[in-house]
What does this fold into?
Amino acid sequence: MGRPRHLSRRTLIAAAVPILSGIAVSPALSMQRGLVAAASAVNPWLVDRALIALARHNDAVWSRDVIAIADFGLPSSAPRFHLVDILGGTTTSLRVAHGKGSDPDHTGMLQSFSNAEGSMATSEGAYLTGDTYVGVHGLSRRLIGIDPTDDRAEARAIVIHGAWYADPALIASQGRLGRSDGCFAFGEQDIALVLARLGPGRLIYAGKA
It folds into this structure.
């Protein structure tokens, strides 16, 4: 039987490599290895949590080329929102603001998480990225909380958006970013990149080691 015409030479070679080497690599294992390699500079505990979230929400997360890990154990002055490009093997780290309710004294460090409506706090857990829309902060992206610790994200209007108070230039004058109402707020020079890289159906894991 001849080779099916719809299969490219690259596809056939890629499929044959594990067989020829005697090693069958599952998609899940390939994803795990890719994420760990690309996120080598990210806190390993949070990388593990992100992998657990990917496995737990396998049916919901339909785009796995890029995921994000927000390390809220770091101060807001540090690049702590990690865009992990699993296919490219690279990580881009940006600054992101946390919620007022998570840092009531405005220390620049997240003190606690909350999922309660009206808390103005950041929520821990896994999020699924939704569609974009234009709101009071311009082009933004909706988020769906898919863990019990953040399942009120939609009701609380927790989204990704740009904001003046998340501009890294503020660090020179006050040593930290401003605070959001619980949203993932980025500097206006970074928001376009975040929205483009984190299209619909991708995972964000937010936590603190």
